Amino acid sequence: MALLALLSMLAGGAARATVYDAELSQQLLHGANLCAQAPCRDVMPQATRFSERKGRPSYVEAFGAGPDKAEHLVGYVFLSTDVVDIPAYSGKPIVTLIGMDTAGLITGVRVLKHSEPILLAGIPESTLLKFIAQYVGQRGDAKLEIGHGDTANGAVGLDAISGATVTVIAENQVISRSAYEIGRQVGMFKSEVRPPARYTPLNEKLSWEQLLAEGSVSHLQVAPKEVGLEGDGPYIDMHFGHLNVPSVGISVLGEHAYRRLMDELKPNEQAIFIIASGAASFKGSGYVRGGIYDRIQVRQDPQSFTFRDTDYQNLYGIQAEGAPAFTESAVFIVRSENFNPAWPWQLTFLANKAEGQSGAKTFVHFDKQYWLPSRYLVGGRPRVELPQAVWKAIWGGKKVEIGLFLFVLAFTAVMYSQRDTLVRISSRKHKPWIKRPRHVLWLVSVVFLGFYLKAQPSITQVLTWFHAVLHQWKWELFLSDPYIFLFWWFIIISTLVWGRGVFCGWLCPFGSLQQLALSIGKVIGLKKYQKLLPKPLHDKLRYLKYVIFAVLLGVSFYSMETAEHLAEIEPFKTTFIVGVWNRSWPFWIFIGGILGWSFFSERPYCKYLCPLGAGLALPGKFRLFGLKRKAECTTCHACAAGCGSHAIDSAGNIDQMECMLCLDCMILYYDDHACPPLVGERKRREKNGQALTAIDAGGYFIKLESVKDALANRAGELAP
User: Fold this and answer.
1) Contact assessment for residue 627 and residue 652, using Cβ atoms and an 8 Å cutoff
2) What tens digit of pLDDT does each residue of 325-334 get?
3) Which terminal residue of the chain, N or C, has fewer Cβ atoms less than 10 Å from its own Cβ?
């Protein structure tokens, strides 16, 4: 439904004339029948009939036919100027028509009139249409913020319009506040009743250090690297606080200035001070042209408040002892009865961020919470349930699945750690303690990890890590998917301890799918056709995956978006996340070709194309524990002949970067009927009538002399 509304909106936008300074009739602006003049169906396409205006602020009810063919309420349509009066860059409001369904989701947004000259000077109106399209499908009470920053608090970041920051900030306020007010009026959104703040009769003069220590002054600092720049000093270093509280106001402003400010404030008006230093300005330059301070906002969920030049007062100095030096300062007035200083709120600083090598600018926000100390409020702070971080809610809702996932990882780690015992009780022709558990793990990996949990690690995550380390690391970004987060910790540890083969050969969902295809091929009679590529050809093709990895990494520094498109060489997303049936025919052919080849050869994709495997192979070279070798391995080719990974060279060396840790060579290592050195020794002893001793950790029969000496020593210890 939201997609239909979006398409209709874009189609309508292309067909209609410019809305710059459009003439709107009084009937549309104030008449009873809004939808007789306004294109209500553009923002509520599922409706067949609209009511007249009702309510304060006014809205229109939209009706449509349900599955039973009966007419029922499908949503609401409202004009922004009926709800809020927020001027934009031009000093005039952007008149916006908004639709919202009965579930609280925005179904459409259409700008009917704007007076923004910035959208005529090099920025087409289509850019504004693209911006407002982001609201379709969002909840009307969502935390909709311009720019992409900390999303751990559930905020939804929106892309800005470069060069029109004031315009998009104003329009975001128009849409989000209008939707929230109408939703609250019709009963969809419940607002908490907040009694007005009552301050304790404290009248102290505190030092700056004391103000910081108790939290009545808060600190927000942004480093240059957080906005893609270089430098040692802060990009911006801000301190701010609430001045209505007597002790804070007097300490910061001084007695006389505080009393004068309080006399000027009207009921429900709150004063906030900000001082800052650094390379950036919290005032920006938008207020010079459009009267809006486009770099700062105050948010008290679910509403945000933007300051105009009429909300600004000069702040000439800080009276608190020990206050830091600053380069700019201001007092801003929040003029809204919806803002309650007894409850927590946050200051948001907005900035342009340069992305990587491309230098492309994106809008980001940085937030700092503020909550008055309890001692300044009569009765103390109100009881507030702060919203749980999104990643915590995700983890809390998947406890059973996470437990099962951890069990699979732990079982794999424990099993591989006991490999020496497992290979000793196996033989080349009989290895159920390895073969059966691995087939179970492959099946679990494909069905449970892949298709059910969609926990398929990808090269895109490796690229994201590279950029996070270089630019800005945020744990919340990686914690949002618990399975991938836990999987990567398992991969990192197991790769450094044993090599990449534990993940690639035992648990990778797509690798397991290829391995199961090979096993199915054997069952259905294809075993005689199953062959590996000739070793010389394999040795050339195996480098292809390293080239792919290097290309993806290099491109990501130019454009992460392009790198993600190129990363479609990984069939993981199509197979487990999106679904083959949802992709076009080239994807079907690509994945069909890989799996078809897998019926006849072992893991072709892993060997030759997988950039993730290449990325893991490099650190795997420095693993702590590798597979064992004997002196005779340099001339014996028994293991190499049976290695499905082609990971053993002519000198008997195992290439741990290519090895999938199937353990077949380790079974031969201890098998006195398969390992040529052991076979020769066994036959010599049998011919000479000598006993067959146990095989030691080096892969040889324990020498008879050693056994005799041990028995003699034992007998001596037992003698009286």
Assistant:
1) no
2) 999 999 999 9
3) C
User: What's the whole-number average pLDDT of the chain?
Assistant: 86
Structure tokens at 27: 């009937």
**CA angle (709, 711, 715) in 5-degree steps:** 115
CB 675: neighbour CB atoms within 10 A? 26
Torsion angle of C-alpha atoms 315, 320, 323, 329, degrees rounded to 10: -10
Q: What is the pLDDT of residue 595?
A: 95
Q: Identify the band that residue 661 occupies on the pLDDT scale cut at 50, 70 and 90.
A: very high
Give, as one character, the DSSP assignment of residue 36.
G
Helix (H) or strand (E) holding 461: helix 459-470
pLDDT band at 441 (very low <50, low <70, confident <90, very high): very high
What type of residue sits at position 652?
G
CA angle 22, 110, 92 (to 5 degrees): 50
Q: What is the pLDDT of residue 402?
A: 95
Radius of gyration of the chain (CA): 34
With 0-12 / 13-18 / 19 or more C-beta atoms within 10 angstroms meaning exposed / middle / buried, residue 515 is buried
Cα angle for residues 562, 165, 6 (degrees, 5° grid): 60
Q: Minimal CA–CA distance to 42: which of 147, 145, 129?
A: 129
**What's residue 148's pLDDT?**
66
264: tokens are: 């000027």
| pLDDT > 60? residue 23 | yes
The torsion of the CA quartet 231, 236, 239, 241, rounded to 10 degrees, works out to -160
Residues 6+ apart with CB under 8 A from 679: 672, 673
Cα gap 509→458, rounded to integer Å? 11
The model's confidence at residue 9, banded by pLDDT at 50, 70 and 90, is very low
The 10 Å CB-count burial string (b at 16+, else e) for 151-162 is: bbbebebbebbe
| Helices within 143-245 (DSSP H only) | 165-185, 208-214
pTM: 0.63
Q: How many CB atoms lie within 10 A of CB 67?
A: 6
What percent of the chain lies above the pLDDT cut of 70? 89
Q: Mind giving me the DSSP string for 486-527? A: HHHHHHHHHHHHT-THHIIIII-HHHHHHHHHHHHHHHTT-G
Question: Which of these ranges, 348-357, 485-494, 619-628, has the smallest mean pLDDT?
Answer: 348-357
pLDDT (tens digit per residue) in 561-615: 788 889 889 999 889 987 888 788 899 999 999 999 999 999 999 999 999 999 9
What SS3 state is found at 242? strand
Pick the closest to residue 348 from 371, 327, 369, 331 (CA basis): 369
Chain centre distance of CA 385? 25
Structure tokens at 372: 């008055």
Please report the pLDDT score of residue 83 as a whole number.
85
- What is d(CA 651, CA 373) in angstroms, rounded to the nearest whole number? 73
- Alpha carbon distance 626, 653 (integer Å): 11
Return contacts of 527-532, CB within 8 angstroms, 24+ apart: 529/600, 530/599, 530/600, 530/601, 530/602, 531/600, 531/601, 532/601, 532/602, 532/644, 532/646
281, 326 Cβ separation under 8 angstroms: no
Angle between helices 125-132 and 2-15 (to 10 degrees): 170
What integer pLDDT is reported at residue 288 of this predicted model? 67
Q: Distance between the two ends of the chain, CA-based, in angstroms?
A: 94
Q: Are 239 and 275 in contact (CB under 8 A)?
A: yes
